[in-house]
């Protein structure tokens, strides 16, 4: 997943490598810093939103993670957003927003993705 969009920067591959390196090393705050800058430039970047959500989730900042997943659900077509809906619901649940989580779960297609949810 490239955190830049095509036709934008020759350093996109380098940025992507750096972000993934930070994530691999658990340096989520460094990755977030870079990803937020990309999101400022490309507000509907699914790659940046997804990676930001992942980083926030792993930092246990579930409110921020759920906000990123909510944006992903909004920018992705429903056929492509089911996994993000599941992660959105999971983040809401971890944030203590049980009613909101239940509402998102109710919007999921029955597809067997329940195994993806952390306990």
Please report the total strand number as a whole number.
0
User: How does the helix and strand content classify structurally?
Assistant: mainly alpha
Helix amount: 55-70%
| Rounded radius of gyration (Å) | 14 Å
* First-to-last CA distance: 26 Å
Count of helical regions: 6
Q: Report mean pLDDT, rounded to a whole number.
A: 85
Q: List SSEs in N-to-C order.
A: HHHHHH
Low-confidence residue ranges: 4-10
Largest sheet: none
Q: In percent, how much strand structure appears in the residues? A: under 5%
Shape: globular
Q: What does this entry look like structurally?
A:
The protein has 119 residues and is mainly α. The chain is 67% helix and 0% strand. It contains six helices and no strands. It has helices at 12-24, 28-41, 46-58, 62-75, 78-94, 98-106. Helix 2 runs antiparallel to helix 3 (46-58). The longest helix is centred in the last third of the chain and has 17 residues, at 78-94. The chain is globular, with a radius of gyration of 14 Å. The two termini are 26 Å apart. The model is unreliable at 4-10 (pLDDT under 50).
Tags for this entry?
single chain, 119 residues, mainly alpha, 6 helices, 0% strand, globular
Concise description?
By secondary structure, this protein is an all-alpha fold.
What's the topology here?
Elements: H1 12-24, H2 28-41, H3 46-58, H4 62-75, H5 78-94, H6 98-106
Helix pairs in contact: 1-2, 2-3, 3-4, 4-5, 5-6
